[in-house]
Amino acid sequence: MPLRRNFLAGGLATLTAFPPLAARAAGGEPEVKELRYQGMASAVGYPELAENLGYLAPLRLRWVGNTISGPQDIQATVTGDTDFGQAFHSAILKLIGVGAPLVAVIGNTGTDAKSWSGLYTLEDSPVQGPRDLVGRKVGVNTYGAHNEFVLQEYLRRAGLAPAEIAQVTLVVLPPSNAEQALRLRQIDAVFLSPIFREKAASRGGIRLLQSDFELFGEFTTGSYVLTRRFIARNPNAARVFVSGTARAIEWAHTREPAEVVARLAEIIHRRNRGGEDDSAVRYWKSIALGAKGGVLADRNFTLFLDWFRANGNAAVARLKPAEVYTNAFNPYAEGTDRQG
After folding, report:
1. Which helix (H) or strand (E) holds 299?
2. CA–CA distance from 201 to each of 175, 182, 278, 295 (Å)?
3. Would the pLDDT of 5 be above 80?
4. 166: exposed, middle or buried (C-beta count within 10 Å: 0-12, 13-18, 19+)?
5. Domain 118-216's class?
6. Phi-psi region of 20 (alpha: psi -120 to 50; beta: other; left: phi over 0)
7. CA distance linking residue 317 with residue 93, whole number of Å
8. Which residues, in sequence order, are CB contacts of 292 under 8 Å at separation 6+?
9. How far, in Å, CA of 321 to CA of 329, rounded?
């Protein structure tokens, strides 16, 4: 049962699937010179880190604007406004389920003991547990993505009935404004992503209700996606993009956090987009990915597929993990030493 939302949902027309994935590119120059993408304010994605480290050459990235929404980001990739996007796996599956020709090609976010997203309330809030959220407002970064999935799972495991879950209202907030909305009591609880959670916790006055790490353990929860059309036309560019991003992930994994933070802060200052600062990235602690180089595995998707089946979403339930992701371009796909 979906939670009550303060918006009108619009439909998405079924899209015609493109031909199967091209085989792994054997080498050669990228077919395109640049990749268009949306960023996030005061944050640095792994492709941006890869470009800064020189791992994407000769490819260049072209920033076309910012987004706070994974579903919106991958829809922009489907429509051709960008060449790649990123979202949590629940959102990726929903879009593929209605015919979007997307393929997850490398993990980009997840949970581990150091980096996780949490559902927070104020220290003096009457909200003490899941049942107290009935009839209250919860801040999320976007509809239909990871925050909503975690919230529903949290409430379901606590034994709340679908009718009770439907009485929890979701309020969409930019991640940079989420903490402020909670402290101003505009909402009763809010999801905070790892870096913003660390930043908010350093100021005190908030209390954790549940984390996604407590629910699911170490887990890759989101990916970068390409369209099947892009891969078929640009297999070398796809290879350079994925392999360079994978190398950047492993660079961050093997460096001391202080060195990674310094590099992320430098990237933000150099791009000079306006309205940004490095205060959030200074709380970076880990890559929070369960597999080397962002390699994907069936288990990263089966959890969400099972949830969609249990909730009667036939369009998504028919999907198989092998239909929604590929490791074909990831140089770390064989011999990984961490779980997916």
Report:
1. helix 299-310
2. 15, 13, 17, 31
3. no
4. middle
5. alpha beta
6. beta
7. 9
8. 250, 253, 332, 336, 337, 338
9. 17
Whether the Cβ atoms of residue 320 and residue 273 lie closer than 8 Å to each other: no
Instruction: Report how far residue 6's alpha carbon sits from residue 168's, in angstroms, rounded to the nearest whole number.
Output: 11
- CB–CB of 143/170 below 8 Å? yes
- Residue 193: the pLDDT is 86
- At 26 the pLDDT is 54
CB 44 within 8 A of CB 266: no
Q: What is the pLDDT of residues 297-310, one digit of tens each?
A: 999 999 889 888 88
The type of residue at 86 is Q
Poorest-pLDDT segment among 138-147, 172-181, 210-219? 138-147
pLDDT tens for 128-175 read 999 999 999 999 988 877 898 899 999 999 999 999 999 999 999 988
For CATH 3.40.190.10, the residue range(s) in the chain are: 26-111+222-323, 118-216
Pull the structure tokens for residue 231. 């891969």
CATH topology of domain 26-111+222-323: D-Maltodextrin-Binding Protein; domain 2 (3.40.190)
